[in-house]
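Re: the pair you flagged

First of the two:
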Amino acid sequence: MNAEELPDPPVDGESEDSGIGERVNAVFTAAEKAAQHIVSMAREEAEDIRRQTRAEADALAKQLRLEADREVERILAEARAQGEALVEEGRARARKVEDGARIRKDRLREEIRLLEERISWAQEGLREVTLRLFPGESEQPADEGDSDSEPL
């Protein structure tokens, strides 16, 4: 304050009021400084909380990613196992079909062999009957006659 701005010297009652006003101003100034200090501390605390929250969020995100990766691996392993089971089931079915086809093929070959054997017996029987019925024709070789057809 400048000398020009100084108020007139207080009169007895005014000096008491003036001292109270200065004290009130000092209290307000101290309160403002305390408030600024509290706001500053609150900002620092808020920044600490933000940093801590970010760190916790990063840690939680990392943990969730790890759990998700584990879940993906579990699902993939399960899918592989199911795929392998399906492949094995397909192979087993294919072996069963192949075995059935092989058995049927063997059965058909046996039936063909038996039919050929019967045909051979029938041809032999017909030759014997022919020889009995036509004893004079036995001198002709069996290859004469139809050369394209097999003898009965």
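Second of the two:
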Amino acid sequence: MDGGDLEGAGELLQRLAELEPYDMDAQRDLLALLLRRGRHADAHRRYEVVRRRYRRAFGEDPDLELAGLSSGH
């Protein structure tokens, strides 16, 4: 994939993650892409937003961890 493909994929995943905030597959894919692109700080911020939102809605942390996402899932 070239940079343009990654950028386009990132934009689509970002939109999907915002439209479906409790879709952990979408969140996981976005986090993995951010990590692959070296955007670790963005991935950590995104993870915290997802974790807090999920905890407020369901009273527990999501089944989602940053560890291992950069090497694929």
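The chain has three helices and no strands.

-B.
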